[in-house]
Amino acid sequence: MRSFITLLALVGLSTAGPVQQRQSSSCSFWMEDIKHQGVASFNANPSGYQVFRNVKDFGAKGDGSTDDTAAIQTAMSSGDRCAPGSRNSTTTTPAVVYFPAGTYLISAPIVDYYYTQMIGNPVCLPTLKASSSFKIAPGQLAMIEDDPYSITTGNADWASVNIFNRQIRNFIIDTTAVAASSAVTGIHWATAQATSLQNIVFQMSSAGGTQHQGIFMESGKWRLS
Q1: Are 106 and 72 in contact (CB under 8 A)?
Q2: pTM for the full model?
Q3: What pLDDT was estimated at residue 86?
Q4: Where are the beta strands (DSSP E) in the chain?
Q5: Buried b (16+ CB within 10 A) or exposed e, 70-106
Q6: Which of 81, 152, 165, 175 is in the most buried spot, having the most CB atoms within 10 Å?
Q7: Cβ atoms of 184 and 143 closer than 8 Å
Q8: Contact 102, 127 (CB under 8 A)
Q9: Cα distance between residue 22 and residue 20, in whole Å
């Protein structure tokens, strides 16, 4: 098994201050404006299944103060998709989960699904920000969680996590509102075929003894390039 992880513009918070988003007179990006007419060819009801999901269409505000956790998770999971723990993989329910420019506050992990592309606006990177009250659920350890551990064994259950066909790109991942003494991770990423992380900026506490980390990665084989 071999996977290729591409990390571009991978940056941590320095003492000089937070990384700034690209300055632009407009955050317009074509993916928001085009007609979304792609279908999931192998789905039982291709005309009724939604492939492209703009998180704001599911109720996310991206205003930096509203808790967008539930809205983002609904955008991720709607349509009877292949969730972690389902113990099967299927090409019938792919999804592109798109984030327009904004700051999306979350109070709990977002569980990534099989065959999913999480894409942010590359012109004005959206920020996924952990709230000061961010709580890790049992079996999880990151803001974006693609490999929940078995609650009964405490270990990764490789038979139940479909760790293929996932991409995350164009985001700022911000844990600075969480206490430096709290163990929090930006992305829990179990690697496998057809997976990639691209154009991601990590903003973390720079306090001495901080327990923040950008990525926790395990399993399979991976390569930085």
Answers
A1: yes
A2: 0.83
A3: 62
A4: 52-54, 63-67, 95-99, 103-106, 110-111, 116-120, 127-130, 142-145, 166-174, 184-190, 195-203, 212-218
A5: ebbbebbbebebbbbeeeeeeebbbbbbbbbbbbbbb
A6: 175
A7: yes
A8: yes
A9: 6
- Alpha-carbon distance of 145 to 29, in angstroms, equals 27
* Token pair 């930096």 in the structure block, residue: 64
> Identity (one letter) of the amino acid at 95?
A
- pLDDT tens digit string along 38-95? 899 899 999 999 999 999 999 999 999 999 999 999 999 999 887 776 656 778 999 9
- The first and second tokens of residue 48, run together, are 């009724």
Collapse the DSSP code of 116 into the 3-class scheme (helix H, G, I; strand E, B; otherwise coil) and give the result. strand
44-190-223 Cα angle (round to 5):
115
Rounded CA-CA distance 142/130 in Å is 10
Neighbours of 171 (CB within 10 A): 27
Q: Is 24 exposed, middle or buried (0-12, 13-18, 19+ CB in 10 A)?
A: exposed
Structure tokens at 90: 């299927």
Q: Which domains does the chain have, with CATH numbers?
A: 50-85+94-218 (2.160.20.10)
Q: What is the Cα–Cα distance from 46 to 26, expressed in whole angstroms?
A: 34
CB-based contact 5:198 (threshold 8 Å) = no
Q: What are phi and psi of 107, to 5 degrees?
A: -110, 0
